[in-house]
Amino acid sequence: MKPADNEAAAVGKARHKDKKQKRKKQNDATDDHCGAAIAKEGAPHEKKKQKQMKDGGEVEEKMKMLKPTVSIAVAGSIIDNAQSLELATLLAGQIARAATVFRIDEVVVFDSTPTSENGDTGDGEESGARFLVRILEYLETPQYLRRRLFPMHKNLKFVGLLPPLDAPHHVRKHEWSEFREGVTLEGDRSKGTLVDVGLSKNVLVEQILEPGKRVTVAMGTNRDLTTACIREVVPPSTPREEMGSYWGYKVRYASNLSGVLKNSPYKAPSDCVWWTCWFGRKH
Fold first, then answer.
1. Most C-beta atoms within 10 A of its C-beta, which of 40, 160, 180, 217?
2. Is 162 helix (H, G, I), strand (E, B) or coil?
3. pLDDT tens digits, 48-70
4. Same domain membership, residue 255 and residue 157
5. Which residue windows are coiled coil (predicted)?
């Protein structure tokens, strides 16, 4: 090979090597620039992620504070199909027992065929919806309060045939509970209000309340039943919130089907609503 050819080959190799080094430097610079850009973009993304986690934690905490409730709606016409007062009473008892077993918070009885404002059929008889409301409320009330809260009525004739619900708030006389249902009594209001809670003695609460009102009394652990130990009336939801105990169901009358959802006492909207027809299909 001639010397001129050798020199040309050496120059070509040198040029190729220079180009390769320049390309490598350009790639390194590009990688550094992209890395810096990614780092800058990652900072706000991380902040957003932390914010989402914080918001999610707050929502979860609020969900824990809001105890879920379950309401069921029953048509009053189910009673109209019963062939006698005794069978109608037994049917209402089965509904009350099912509501207690499944820890239902509210039973809404809607009148599918209301005939008057007060639920009478026109001949002095109660409509099926009003009858069902009366029996459900009677059975949910502890036995020691029923005589004070429910006057004699012909539609209560066969309630003695129904088995007791044995709900947690149906506390017996010899049992002690941190909360008890009671009814306010007449008497001196200078120190408070006397309440019959189904024990050997009436208890004194600090609030001044009108007689004949059903209340939930916080009994605590002090078993002193004298008036020296003053109790306190609390909301009916307190036993459930503090002890996690089921404390019975509420009964609400709705004059029509739309009133089931419109007049709900619960502030939060319903998360899930199921309607069933006679054939058991969900809608």
1. 180
2. coil
3. 556 566 555 554 555 455 678 89
4. yes
5. none
